[in-house]
Amino acid sequence: MTGAFAERHIGTDAAAQRVMLDALGYDTVDALVKRAVPASIQVAPRSTSDIPPAATEAEALAELRILASQNRVARPMIGLGYYDTFTPSVISRNVFENPSWYTAYTPYQPEISQGRLEALINFQTMVTDLTGLETANASMLDEATAVVEGMLVARRASKSPSNVFLVDTDALPQTKALLAHRAEAVGIELAYTSFAEASVPEAFGAFVQYPGASGRVWDPTEVVSAVHAHGGLVVVAADLLALTLLRSPGALGADVAVGTTQRFGVPLGFGGPHAGYMAVRAGLERQLPGRLVGVSQDAAGHPAYRLALQTREQHIRREKATSNICTSQVLLAVMASMYAVYHGPSGLRGIATDVARKAEALAQRLREYDLHLVSDSFFDTIRVVTPGPSRRVIERARSKGYQLFWVDDATVGISVDETTTADDLAAVAWAFGLPEADENDVRDIPYADAPPLAGVPSQLARVEEYLTHPVFNTHRSETAMMRYLKQLSDRDYALDRGMIPLGSCTMKLNAATEMAAVSWPEFSRVHPFAPEADVHGYLAMIEQLEVWLAEVTGYDAVSLQPNAGSQGELAGLMAIRGYHRANGDVERTVCLIPSSAHGTNAASAVLAGMKVVVVACDEAGNVDLDDLRAKIATHADQLAALMITYPSTHGVYEHDVLEITQAVHDAGGQVYVDGANLNALLGYARFGDLGGDVSHLNLHKTFAIPHGGGGPGVGPVAAKAHLAPHLPSHPLSQRKDHAGGVFDGGAISAAPHGSASILPISWAYVRMMGAEGLRDATAAAVLAANYIALRLKDHYPVLYAGEGGLVAHECILDLRPLKEATGVSVDDVAKRLIDYGFHAPTMSFPVAGTLMVEPTESEDLGEIERFIEAMIAIKAEADAVAAGEWPAGDNPLSNAPHTAESVVAGEWTHPYSRETAVYPVHSLVRTKYWPPVRRIDQAYGDRNLVCACPPIEAFA
Fold first, then answer.
1. What confidence score (pLDDT) does residue 325 get?
2. Cα–Cα distance between 236 and 281 in angstroms, integer?
């Protein structure tokens, strides 16, 4: 072991590892891993490294303090979809900084996810109420990617034969950049328009920014009608706070509404993570990308929440997927929804009114001195024509600690928010040179009596009610709010309760020291478009992390912009596309993908303009070399890329990986190595040395960023030097040059550096582990997986193994023989594990009827043994069903999970005891996790789709 932090991060100490190694028959952990990992790809520990020796927790925090001090916490008035906000302390402490919320996994096991599912139902209801549309999903990655997804929804649902999508010229610049990059890849033609013309050209859809980037508020009703007349759909990006005062997109006739919920109490964080949103009119709910939470019922007939329409999940639809997004921003969506719960409808309207009055007061003061506004109708943003160079105004404001937006040489943009004060307004007025404002005595601008929305047409004033559900009108006191949040978290299972042994989705320790800096104002209150001089600390930290990640992966360049693994995939494939096109190889559009691959691989390839060709896998789970060679030969001239996951999705190290990548290169293709399983490789092998040209990494897996109940995530893309010029860029980035070169590909995320505010987590993880600690973590993870596989193989067959019978960092337990012999299904086992106090492993992926188990390096031997004990006991219970001791339809497995109510209310009529139901092992008596609902009826929920807060009577 190396250093105090590595010893705390890795759950098994030397004595525990000795027990496990003795069982497996190896002298050292290193010997075990070197037997599992093919010798041909192993790398020796480096004698020199760009990663400094492991720091202590105190040292890492001190270094982060130095980096943080290099960021200037200014007063950001740049706007463009990003605003300073007050996070209510009760939400900051009880959600944002609470491991019960940030260490939870995606709610695929809904019975133990009822708390965050209720919070997401609140989020969906908040969005549908404010947008005036019927159905909202459980969040998007950010506003700009939500607009792209809205465009794709319009394309699928439109009756128009046109290939044109109309784009508002007053759209946010980052949205324009994303639309241009993404539309080109899928053959959509963008037509920019101010919508001022008398007629609207035929198009399959149109996009309107409401209010516009300039702040302008106008009535798009006629444009909506004209687009509909051509069979097109209209997507409106709307500011949710403005919608408390303005007519909703639904009332204007929009088909889709998108946007961000950042200003609902979620810190700026240099661009993220924030929860975007999408809502659709009736009839489009089955076109929604991402996740949708619905209301169903459990086995007792009680209301229960679950993910709705799960057949839309991208790992099922693969190349037929309508989106590659398989995640959301749950933690941030929870925060935004709780901001609405905390303030209620009247509180939100009060905040919006206050913001509008501030903007109007500033505008009026500027008008009094003959300064011209670009638009006289606005909510929170004005653009001012300057009599002299606009840079002078920007610099005067900056000298007082304010960041304004440079529009052009003669125009300055100013956005106000809930944190803006009268002194702030006066300082901005001074920056414009108002003669009555003294430079050394900034005076107040009174705004309390300014009329809100003074220039907005009366027909755009909101008349519809919103947030009428009791949840938004009940929790007014902090006591009530604190207790509500505690009730919800108690209904969930997160890492703070026990192991979440999910294959394919590493759930490791998220140490408190790693999390600490995320809340510091020097990181949290920084605008993503702040000038470079104000963000030196962020840029230095980002460059260090880029260099470290490049070293451990064997690549030359890393972009941290992608804010999810799926977006990292897309960025890597778009880099390959850009490379081939730059070389004149426009015909190279075929992407080979093994049948075992993550489903987002195929979806990402389609969205990058590629054609998916599936490569078979053999009985051992490896890529079928003969089929690969045949597919390469068939598509040699059209081959763009091969996407593989290493170790494979089946949890084994493929020994032919070098032969596979060489065959692709010989045919002129590029190799994309999916980095989802990097936790099995780090320190022992590198993707770049396997023949990889580009990979995405999951910082929310291998590098300790928490999953947050299904988001946030960070999915950096790493590439060899020849692909570096095609990595993501951004029109508002502080710099285009990176440690690995100048990036000039299109934008992938709304912010230049993606979800930058959570990068200190991974920075701290690498800094405190050091290169040796990262290697030790890999070894401990592989050891734990092989120990579980060994202990359980006599009870459940291990489906795939590599040389020496070893697996990688995860193993697939085959439950199909159990189903055949006993009738007990994989669902029964997963739900019964809840009664034993566990979150189930990954179900039926990548093989139906199996469980994929990944213990990670963070779990200690006691927790690993507890899981093994539970799985062995469940096998015995299944055997008892097969032996006729319990009926097939009435046994502890088919009835699992058991709630407290189910064992204490009414007469007990089951053929097994109450103790067997809820205390199958004695250790649970004092530590029992009680699921809040019984098994949920998924089919009922899909037949009766309800995706908003049910009335309170439903729970009576």
1. 84
2. 12
